[in-house]
């Protein structure tokens, strides 16, 4: 998979790396009490030092700790911690802290009344992004991808070869842009061009999608635009309108919005897939993906059947003469 570098290492732990040297504590005057102050996770310097030690965070990464706030757990406070390299790449981790500051818990809170993937489902937006497949899907696959990523190319081939053939009536595929600019110089321009194809003719996006992945080894930052316009001519896409869209960077905001969504979801590598909200990271083999799809489709069928049963059970009709 294509990752964001040092922050991806942080993610592999939890995914927070030698600890930054701490300022020495002043020597107390003679006769002063020598008992050290009690450490508290509600004290930001103490918590930062603890996390740097625990996760081997290097000094070049910044640790930003927000003020504690009420949480869903009784007697626990919520503290958001963000680790960043100072640039656009960042990762947030939530910790629950006891109100006396002595206990620290890292984890997620689940509400059994909701899907276990509810937090991600609330952040995933399929509208406005290229999609193909069933109009009334039992499973939606949302893939965050990068046109210059080799693993994304392999996963795209898997998805395109199998989904339409085996799940045409059950699955919808949604494509989201997550260009990793730090290692892929033409990924963002390629994403913007893809969105131009989508604006001009939504169906043509998938032609471009397949073509640019096939051309991955021969594309460069310098020849990308020319090759894309040449491809557009072969697909009867208006090359003049495409050129205007590319030159004016009309779709830059669309790509950035998709990338911002990825950051909000804490997606740190491509490809990353969400199957009805279930996160799958990396180039997922078809047999593994198929088993997840089959499970999610069957689960969705049961939920639909239960809802239809509930809706039907409480229907009230007036006894109107002449009507059944």
What would you note in describing this structure?
It is a single chain. The chain is α+β, with helices and mostly antiparallel strands and 324 residues long. It has 2 domains: 2-20 and 40-106, no CATH class; 118-299, Glutaredoxin, CATH 3.40.30. The protein has helices at residues 6-13, 44-55, 118-123, 150-166, 187-200, 204-214, 224-234, 239-247, 252-264, 286-313; strands at residues 2-3, 62-65, 69-70, 76-84, 90-98, 104-106, 131-133, 139-145, 171-177, 269-270, 272-275, 278-281. The strands form 3 sheets. Strands 2, 3, 4, 5 and 6 form a 5-stranded antiparallel β-sheet that branches. A hairpin with a 5-residue loop joins strand 3 and strand 4. The relative contact order is 0.12. Mean pLDDT is 88; it is low at 13-27.
Which structural class fits the helix and strand makeup? alpha+beta
Sheet-strand content, in percent, reads 15-25%
Structural shape: flat
Low-confidence stretches: 13-27
Q: How many structural domains can be distinguished in the coordinates?
A: 2
Helix content: 25-40%
Count of alpha and pi helical runs: 10
Distance between the termini: 60 Å
Q: Tell me about the largest β-sheet.
A: 5 strands, antiparallel
- Roughly what is the average pLDDT, rounded to an integer? 88
**Fourth-tier CATH superfamily name of the largest domain:** Glutaredoxin
Topology pattern, helix = H, strand = E: EHHEEEEEHEEHEHHHHHEEEH
Record field, number of beta strands: 12
CATH topology of the largest domain: Glutaredoxin
Radius of gyration: 25 Å
| CATH class descriptor name of the largest domain | Alpha Beta
The CATH architecture of the largest domain comes to 3-Layer(aba) Sandwich
């Amino acid at each position: 998979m294509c990752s964001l570098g040092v922050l991806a290492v942080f993610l592999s732990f939890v995914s927070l790396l030698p600890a930054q040297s701490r300022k020495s504590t002043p020597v107390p005057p003679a006769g002063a009490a020598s008992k050290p102050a009690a450490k508290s996770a509600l004290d930001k310097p103490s918590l930062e030092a603890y996390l740097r030690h625990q996760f081997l965070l290097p000094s070049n990464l910044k640790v930003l700790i927000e003020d504690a706030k009420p949480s869903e757990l009784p007697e626990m406070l919520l503290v958001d911690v963000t680790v960043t390299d100072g640039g656009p790449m960042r990762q947030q981790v939530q910790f629950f802290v006891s109100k006396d500051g002595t206990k620290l818990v890292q984890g997620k809170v689940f509400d059994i009344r909701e899907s276990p993937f509810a937090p991600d489902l609330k952040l995933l937006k399929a509208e406005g992004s290229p999609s193909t497949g069933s109009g009334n899907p039992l499973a939606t696959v949302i893939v965050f991808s990068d046109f210059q990523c080799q693993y994304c190319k392999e996963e795209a081939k898997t998805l395109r070869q199998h989904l339409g053939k085996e799940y045409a009536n059950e699955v919808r595929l949604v494509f989201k842009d997550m260009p990793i600019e730090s290692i892929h110089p033409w990924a963002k321009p390629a994403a913007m061009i893809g969105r131009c194809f989508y604006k001009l003719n939504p169906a043509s996006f998938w032609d471009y999608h397949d073509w640019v992945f096939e051309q991955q080894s021969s594309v460069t930052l310098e020849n990308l635009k020319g090759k894309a316009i040449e491809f557009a001519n072969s697909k009867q896409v208006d090359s003049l309108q495409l050129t205007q869209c590319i030159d004016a960077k009309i779709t830059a905001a669309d790509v950035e919005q998709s990338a911002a969504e990825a950051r909000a979801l804490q997606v740190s590598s491509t490809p990353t897939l969400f199957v009805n909200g279930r996160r799958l990271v990396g180039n997922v083999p078809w047999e593994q993906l198929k088993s997840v799809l089959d499970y999610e489709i069957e689960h969705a069928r049961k939920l639909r059947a239960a809802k239809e049963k509930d809706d039907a059970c409480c229907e009230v009709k007036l006894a109107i003469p002449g009507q059944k």
